[in-house]
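So, could you explain the following?
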Amino acid sequence: MTIAERFARFCRSLRFEDLPAETVHRAKMCVLDMVGVMVAAWKEESTQVLFDYFAGLGGREEATVFVSGKRLPAQNTALINGAMSHSLELEDHHSHRYSLNHPGVTTIPVALALAERERAVGTDFLTAVVLGYEIGSRIGKVTRTGVLNLERGFHESSVCGPFSSAATAGKLMDLDSPGFARAFGIAGCLAAGNTEFKANGAWTKRFQVGNASRNGIVAAELAARGLTAPVTIFEGEHGFYRSYVLDGNYTLDGITRGLGDVWEINNIIYKPFGCAGVLHSAVTAAQNLFRKHHPQLGEITRIEIRTSSKLLEEYAKPVEEKARPKSKVDAQFSLPYCVAVTLKRGQALVDEFEPGVFNDPEVVDLARRVVALADPEIDRAWPARDPTEISLVFRGGQVVTERVEAAKGDLSNPVTDEELLEKFRYMSGREFSHDTVRQVEDFLMNLETAPDVGRLAALLLP
């Protein structure tokens, strides 16, 4: 039996009753967090470009693009909502101990779109969500961490995403086992996305994740209609791992080990900062310095950051460009900027990545004082272990140092449920009234009792 066939059998047989209470709760919190992130991203320029184009295509009115009130074909709604979920760099992701994948962005938008179309009950919806996280996380987990994003140039969330999406869509469409296997085979031929967006801070990062959400639905739809596909898509001679990851960078022996007993959604971490996840350790250290010392920024002559050589190469160079981002995406992927803005404002959430802030002369000047240093000790286990040390050097010679062993949000230092609720209220409150936010929160916290998950869309009308 191939990997796709083993995944297919599991997807077909999984029932809500098989899920531990902890896993159900985690799924609800993931949905709540992602809904807040999507809502807050509605006004992004990239969202409006995508919405204008796909709304102009028309088609069957199946599922609602959040905040707009507009219903589009489910696959196009999933694309737009999926891009929104990835636009603010605030969505959850698999712990870096295991992979750099963000399976939620290609699971939850898909589940919401198809649940609305299919009028799915809450238990079926949550089961599909857990499956999307499970399949996507396992696909990334058996690779050497970082090889896709940081070496091969493939965007892990985008190339793994169609498989998460296909699993989620297939469950809500009630595919049989052969149908699931075909859907995975089709998803494999639709897996695409690269990290070249870093070259100029491009919106393609957002789009390619949305496209992965769409492509998984397409895969499930075509599989349901009988389109044939290679069920050796994962381990085959020209399959996903040999083509995208390359031999020597993965071990497939454990890809289905513990399936149904170990739930990868429990290894998902939530983001308190609106930047690349690998920068969160440094931002955590900067936030700690802000809270403990409230440093006089004008007195700082040098900000030394000890981190991994790979992070320095990807997120701290070229030095001048990283100190002065030209776009929101540039800012989200700049180590000097993220540390500088946190030292000034005490956080790095949404507003900190707007032009009025990343063009602030004081922040730019502070970012230029950053000196990033590669630490061989950190390199040994990075990114599975991600310590950062920041030292502020002041004019009088005083030095203040903060070292963190893990970022806020890491499994060892998690975002609590109450902190996640506060984040959701803030994010969704950027578009909706307090009363609406509370109604949505109540609906999401009781998803397992929902007779029709599609009713959520009616609560998120403009």
Observations:
- The chain has two domains: 3-271+417-459, 277-404.
- The chain is about 50% helix and 5% strand.
- Residues 195 and 232 are 27 Å apart (CA to CA).
- The chain has a mean pLDDT of 97.
